[in-house]
Amino acid sequence: MAAGLARLLLLLGLSAGGPAPAGAAKMKVVEEPNAFGVNNPFLPQASRLQAKRDPSPVSGPVHLFRLSGKCFSLVESTYKYEFCPFHNVTQHEQTFRWNAYSGILGIWHEWEIANNTFTGMWMRDGDACRSRSRQSKVELACGKSNRLAHVSEPSTCVYALTFETPLVCHPHALLVYPTLPEALQRQWDQVEQDLADELITPQGHEKLLRTLFEDAGYLKTPEENEPTQLEGGPDSLGFETLENCRKAHKELSKEIKRLKGLLTQHGIPYTRPTETSNLEHLGHETPRAKSPEQLRGDPGLRGSL
Ligand SMILES: *[C@@H]1O[C@H](CO)[C@@H](O)[C@H](O)[C@H]1NC(C)=O
Ligand SMILES: *[C@@H]1O[C@H](CO)[C@@H](O)[C@H](O)[C@H]1NC(C)=O
C-alpha cells in the first residue's frame, strides 16, 4: 500500500513537471490493480449497489419459484450481466479501472402476459438513465440447462435478456390460467362467456382480464406503476387531467375559429364541423372544390393553412 502510494505520488510529480495533460497521469495509475475500487476482493460488487426498492413477491408458475434466490451470469465483451430471477438484473464492467461501472438494470416488477401466456419478466426501476430508469425484459426459453443465453439493448437503457431453462420446455409451462386460484379461474370463465354472449366488447374483455391478472399479482396496477411512469418526463402528462383537456379544447376551438375566419374572409364556403373528420374535409376538399384560380390568386390563405 505504502509502495503504491509512493509510486502514485512519483507519477503525479513527473506529470506535473512535463507538458502532459492531467489525463496522462490518471491513465498510468489505473494500470495498477488497486485496493480502493470495485475489484477489491474483500468488497463484493453487489454490496455496493443500492436498489431503489424491494422486488415484487415471487409469482407466476409455481415450478419456476425454485429459481428464486439463484443468479445466472453471462460475460459479453467487457461486461458481466447477472440475472437473479424474481430479484434483479445487474451489470458489472470487467476492468481494473477504479471506477468500473456496476449497475442495476432492473428490479423484479411484473409479468408480461399475452394470449394466456407468461411472455416475459419485467425488471424495472434500475439505475437512472437520463430522465428514466433502466429496465429489462427477460424472456424465458426452453434450453438444456439454466443459463443466461443472450443480452442486448434494443433501445437506450432498455435491455432484453434471454434466459434458457428446462423448466419452460413443456408446452403448458407458461400458461396463465392453470396458475390462478379457483375463484379467479371462475371469474375468467365468466369473462369468456360474456364475450361469447356479446355482453362485453373485445376491449372490455381485455380490460377485465387485466384487472384479473392484477388481482392475481401478476401485473401491477397503474398506481403501483406510477413512479416509473412519472419518470417518463413531462410528455407523458398528455390528456391525463381534466384541466389539460380543457386547455387543449380551448386552443383547438380558437384554431377552428381562426381557420373559419380565413375561409369566410376569402369567400370560401365551409360545412359546419360536427365531427373531427370534418376538419379534414374543411381543410382539403372544400377549397379544392372551389375554382383553382381563386386559390392560386390567394397565397395568403395557402400559407396560413
Ligand atoms: C440481487 O438479487 C440477489 C439474489 O437475491 C441478491 O443476493 C442481491 O443482493 C441483489 N442485488 C441487489 C443490488 O439488490
Ligand atoms: C396463443 O396460444 C396458443 C397456445 O396456447 C397458440 O396455439 C396460438 O398460436 C397463440 N396465438 C398467438 C396469436 O400467439
Walk me through what this model shows.
By secondary structure, the chain is of the alpha+beta class. Among the domains are: 48-176, Cation-dependent Mannose-6-phosphate Receptor, Chain A; 180-221, no CATH class. It has helices at 2-17, 22-30, 182-196, 202-216, 222-230, 242-265, 277-289, 292-296, 299-304, and strands at 72-76, 79-84, 88-93, 102-114, 117-124, 128-129, 132-133, 135-142, 147-155, 158-165. The strands form 2 sheets. The protein has an 8-stranded mixed sheet with strand order 1-2-3-4-5-8-10-9, with no helix packed on it. It has a two-stranded antiparallel sheet with strand order 6-7. The radius of gyration is 30 Å and the shape is flat. The N and C termini lie far apart (74 Å). 16% of the residues are buried. Bound molecules: 2-acetamido-2-deoxy-beta-D-glucopyranose (NAG) (2 copies).
